[in-house]
Batch of 2 targets.
Target 1
Amino acid sequence: MKVEQISIFIENKSGRLAEITRVLSDAGINIRALSLADTSDFGILRLIVNNGAKATEVLKEKGFTVSKTEVVAVEVPDRPGGLSAILQALDKDSINVEYMYAFVERCGGNAVIIFRFDETDKAIASLQAQNFNMLEGNRIYNM
Amino acid sequence: MFFNEEFETLPRPALEALQLKRLQSTLERVYANVPFYKASFDAAGIKPSIVTHLQDLQKLPFTTKQDMRNSYPYGLFAAPMDEIVRIHASSGTTGKPTVVGYTRKDITTWSELMARSFVAAGAHKGDIIHNAYGYGLFTGGLGAHYGAELLGASVIPISGGNTKRQIMIMQDFGSTVLTCTPSYSLFMAEESQAEGVDFKNLKLRVGIFGAEPWSEAMRTEIENKLNLSAIDIYGLSEIMGPGVAIECIEAKRGLHIWEDHFIPEIINPLTGELLPEGEKGELVITTITKQGIPLIRYRTRDITSLTYEPCVCGRTHARIARMSGRSDDMLIIRGVNVFPSQIESVLVGIEGIEPHYMLIVDRLGTLDTLTVQVEISELLFSDEIKVLQALSRRVEKEIKDMLGVTCTAKLVEPKTIQRSEGKAQRVIDNRKLV
């Protein structure tokens, strides 16, 4: 149920994001989902791609600092209250969300939310118990 | 082990008698041959003959780097040009370079002092010395080279640069002693990882590092990463070049300055007043055997202290402490004296931080600001903003605790801070001082 996400340290200067996407494009890597967390000095680019191992390799070759993180992809009905239901369920089991970001699936009426929890396994168990649908990594990578 | 046991262990009374005799003859020589010294002694109303004790040295005026620049290029030479067999010059980052000339005897002396230094560091005949100091106008390369040959070691005159080739040669030629700047040694360690070479599999036993100030914490880091014993060497082209002073491998506590050739003093850099043994101040050196360009009370701008305590190695020559900075490198930030080397020792104390850093000083309105750029490493990188921010806060707090100065720590991408194959540039001062 875990999805592999890669995170890249980006100094806050022009052209860095363009450089990362260029490196990935040259290696034929497709970005499935992304989020950028930023502060005044630096940012962290979080990506889910179709080939995480290769993306890590080519980025490291270019001198980027890359790490791997496990996240959880949860399917949410694309209607009012969809996200709220998940967050209430997590809150009931006192599960803390480190960060999250969303993307809308191309087909079907559902959105997908990517979550990073401090206790990933506990969160998966809680969501399963409450009948939320989580997507396998392979489904996301090959979407 | 000694290279010249008799002179390296000369009892203090005999050493001081020799110093006085050599000082007196140097003073006569410069007064007679160097117009600058005749003018400066005359202006102070002093004749060389007033020096009848070593303590009289402090009555003489100082020589500064500016005096050398004013005499550019050959004005301070005390020997005729047809006796000068070598010319070196220091980097002229601010104006013209300072030029020094050596007679044949000066080269012989320098070679001996450098050979003594190698032995003090634990090197011997049979060693393969990988000399990565730059060859050329800079004294590092040739100075170490001649000493290594006199010692009877095999010298690899690789000079600086082309780090991949350096690593290949160290591995294939079986280098046992490395000589370079401390920052370059760490750069080599970093590159060796990329090359898949582990320093633990190399034959290096001793590293002799100098030409820039470094810290005790950096020594530990170098010794761990390069798997060798790291020794601090001191020298400056104005006085001779490398080999003016060196740590002995027995104690690694302070650098023996070869007192049968140099007289060290420590002064208050602001007042010029002589400081007692053990107090920190600017190192002043008088050369007492040099022929080409003897210097009287030369202000090195290097900050250190001096001790005459006997050393376990048996050498009787005084020791200077590891250089803690330069009086002209010293930054004054909101009234606090800051040496880049102090910041460095804080940084290497934080696990995972690489000792590559840049200090940026600026002035916002009337307030000085200090930004410390630190490279993020894979070990430190976290996917979470709060972890990285906590790391920045920790750097800021430790610098504040140690130095009493407030700074902003800024994380930058790995390998983006300029690496140096010579002296590292650590400070950018953008303040426009009126």
Note: The domain at 1-327 of chain B is CATH 3.40.50.12780 (Rossmann fold).
Target 2
Amino acid sequence: MTRLLTVDSLTVALPQGADRPHAVEELSLHLDAGEILCVVGESGSGKSITANTVMGLLPKTLKVKAGTVTFEGESILGLSAEALRSRRGRRMAMVFQEPMTALNPLMRVGDQIAEALQVHGKGSEAKARVPELLAAVNLPDPASIARMHPFRLSGGQRQRVMIAMALALEPALLIADEPTTALDVTTQMQILRLMREIQERKGMGVMFITHDFGVVAEIADRVAVMQHGRIVEQGPASDILNAPQHPYTRKLIAAVPHGAALEKPAIRPSPVLVMKGVEKTYQRGGWFGPKAVVKAVHDADFTLNKGETLGLVGESGSGKSTLARCVVRLVEPEKGEILFHGKDLRPLSRQGWLPYRKRIQMVFQDPYASLNPRRKVGDAITEGPITHGVSPAEARTRALDLLRLVKLDPSAMERYPHEFSGGQRQRIGLARALAMQPELLIADEPVSALDVSVQAQVLDLLAEIRQRLGLTMLFITHDLRVAAQICDRIAVMQRGAIVELGPTEQVFGAPQHPYTRALLDSIPGRDWTPPVLAETA
Amino acid sequence: MELSKLPGYLLGRLVKAAIVILAIVVCNFFLIHAAPGDPASIIAGQSGAADARFLEQLRAQFGLDQPLYVQLWIYLKGVLTLDLGFSHRQQVAVASLLWDRLPATLLLTGAAFVFALSVGVAMGALAALRVGTWGDSIITVLALTFYATPLFWVGLMLVLLFSVTLEWLPSFGMASVGVELHGFAVVLDVAKHLLLPALTLGLFYVAVYARLSRATMLEVADQDFVKTARAKGVPEGRILRRHILRNALLPIITFAGIQAGQLIGGSILVETVFAWPGIGRLAFEALLARDYQVLMGVFFCTSVMVVLFNLITDLLYAVVDPRVEVSA
Amino acid sequence: MKDFWRNFSRNRGAVVGLVVLVAVLILAVLAPVLYPGSPWDMAGMPFAPPGEEGMLLGTDSLGRDVAAGIAHGARVSLLVGAVSTVAALAIGVSLGAIAGYLGGLVDDLVMRFTEFFQTIPSFVLAILLVAIFTPSIASIVFAIAVVSWPPVARVVRAEFLSLRSREFVQASEVLGKSRLSIVVGDILPNALSPIVVLSSLMVASAILLESALSFLGLGDPNMMSWGFLIGSGRSVIRMAWWMSVFPGIAIFLTVLSLNLVGEGLSDALNPRLARNRGGKP
């Protein structure tokens, strides 16, 4: 095999005032033609900077301090801007994370692909090549897709266009920077398969950047694990996945949701929440224009028993969040009954709802958006109980207890949210909900915005608290592994409806509905079972 | 947007424009009635000099003895048949006064707009390209200076410099008085007279467009698709033209539409300073003579101009941005 | 607060602006002390050039001291600027808040109304309003407020709209807080920084508007103002340039300093944006 890319002791300096002196330090890796190297790490580990250095796309504020990058036998760090440009797109190409913003909104996608050919002197071939390329990434009706503007395409389609564009000049090296992170699982799987297939066909070298070990298991030949700008471990994929050596890698892999159900106590059927015939539709369109009616939720009946955790699972747009928000009246459905201990909450007024606010609480997805940045943590936790007539002194005691419960220091009371990390904020959000002493907790993707290792901590905490307080929980997630780990029963949602509902083992072990099967098939690295690792120090 | 959908879109915009114009007429009507005192004498001018016959005539014209909604109807009917009332001071129909003055104002505002847009966007683009350098700082300071200077004062200072001190350019009017000119000489003469007023009116908007385009270009340059273009090896010049500038143009078009009203407002000041025989000058004269009938005519006429201009920018936007029909 | 000052003072222009603004404020406050008596009274020979007759900035066609006019005019300019901005903020913030928080049909109606006001030529409307309601401080403030609230309403609405769907506001809903305490306690404080920045720019444009109105002779006849000074110097600019030059410089400096302070506020309140403005990250 030919050596395509060698990075040798690369050090990239961060601007002064950053939290560490170097974005990337003493980094060495190599890539052969025909192999896929996965660079894995949590956010801020320097993996994107590495990719951008190779492409010659580093922002001006970052400077290479030491090291060499050799691509196709040439050292490229010393090359002129023009020499680099002529290689970009032609010999090395890149696919980005955000398909929604990575295409020029004002240009037809065909023109954008054609542009890649034009700027490398192959403009005359564009007419024939563009449809070919679009067909090669399995887009239907390439001729008409080529004439469309990006806003008409879905995220998955746009990512295919990006890949087609990257492949236009048959580059030797493809760098993919988290290309599937913004996509739904089923789309993610399609894109992963597509990339693998094209890579094999063309014999390209692919540098694939990801944070997800499932994706690594799915696609990698070799793996490099990054932490704080350094590679802590690299080697063949099977070695790293099944027998990681470095403590950090071990920690990351241990944190991957293992999908194995915990020991669960038997649930006696005693309904806390019953959803019956709830429907929510959205209308789009102005006063004059045509109206589009979207059924966000329909045919989504379920019963939630005391002490039970029900997982609402589905892809984005499946209506799972809308359904959950109906329960707490953040969304007002047009039809149906929301029976809480037999009492229909739907017709209640804002005032009539007040007593139930104490009993039903919610934890939100985005740790950076779910806390008021201008309010101290203590106030955030105590304001709910105080609103409901608890004395400030008692609310404070309760808040201190809760901070201990979610494993935060009592001094957190006097600090502002921006002083905390994502995982800590998520725990503050949990404490805020628990301060109301609810019996039903709705958790809307509570871990999906967190790094894997933090994700594991928050999930463990949730499981622990649920058991200790005997909470009933409605748990919304798009991540099937997470659902399997924490839920007693699973409801699978697709296009606003629950298509399958059953005990976790049954849904995972013997799925009935084709969509459930498709979802399960799409779990990246589903054939890989994370090894059980002894607790690392 | 697809060209086939343009007529429908245009129709929607026309309906909207018609509603706005109707609302302006109603607004005008209620202004007369909101003012303290007898509407007839307000329209005639509060100096008290208006004679009784004229007041009677006004009462009849507006049906002031009728219920309010009838009056509104009479007023609406009048305006929609382009009867904007009668200027007692000048003994001419308001509509014909406006019609006579319109070309001068269109020439002035048009010239100022083109000047402001081209120079402003060029300055903003230049500053964005050289962000953080001396060039950027100079352009930013210049824009801020133009932005903070009162329009009419700029006009006076230009007169002081170019007409009084240097005696290069005429300080008032639209054409030289007392000279017979023919053919191209006329054009040149008008152009000479136009230069200072257009410069005055334009400078403020040069600042506005320079600041706006600098900001949007920096914003667009930061977006993912620019990185995509770079990653596929597009040369910087082409990235600027095909990716950054085209996208940065959208907010500039929107803003041009919003600013149209201000531009016409500014022309009142500039026409006053330079005695430019346009609608703005007419407004100033009407103000001095307390000829409110004319003043309201000016308000109506300038509003219609703005609405039409907005219609054009909407259309332009729809042609440039394929996403319009989705959000409309 | 300490962060705020640090970020604010990092913008040198803003500090200069603040100094100039404070100087203008002091001038306005001390005007009756520095130039006792009415600025309308004759103080010396007509058309005395600057520096002569003990007149720092010369006299006008009636022998009135231009410097005294500028000092007293500062009071009017700042007063009109501040009061009309407060009035415009009151209209704009409440309309924007209602539209953004309630959304739906209310939002549609309020926004159509706002768009309408943005479409009509605001300066022409202001002239018409002041003329019809007779020129006075009150009618000028009213007219300026009426034409300058739409941008506030738009900004506030956009902020409310985005904050309303933010998760911390939803969390407050779920906690059962009242609408009022959500708007006042959660949304408004987070929408404040663009409003603060906008208001300093609005004071600047209100001062410009006021000067333009009084330049056209629509000022309060009992109040000396900068625009009036320029307007009265216009016809005699060939003989007495100082009559229009100095008041113009006063307007320019005040408006400039307000703009600079506005930029400083913007940097101090959105430090993230300020850093990005310097260059591509």
Note: Residues 67 and 181 of chain B are 56 Å apart (CA to CA).
